[in-house]
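ugh ok fine here u go
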Amino acid sequence: MTNEELTQNILKALDEIRPFLNSDGGDISLIGIENGKHVTVRLEGACTSCSVNQMTLRAGVETTIKNYAPQIETVVNIA
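structure:
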């Protein structure tokens, strides 16, 4: 998978999860991809102060990204 294909797959994954985040007043942006294995995102809006944002990141965002791009090893949120 090329870098462009990987980026497009990750953006598709974020588009899939975005409506759930939007419904709670939040959003998410892709910041970068390192070595084709590590994704950095930024949770935005209500997600920044939500007490369960790490659970959302792992159970929702990371799982969805890995469905679209199985080679991804980590997903990290930067504030």
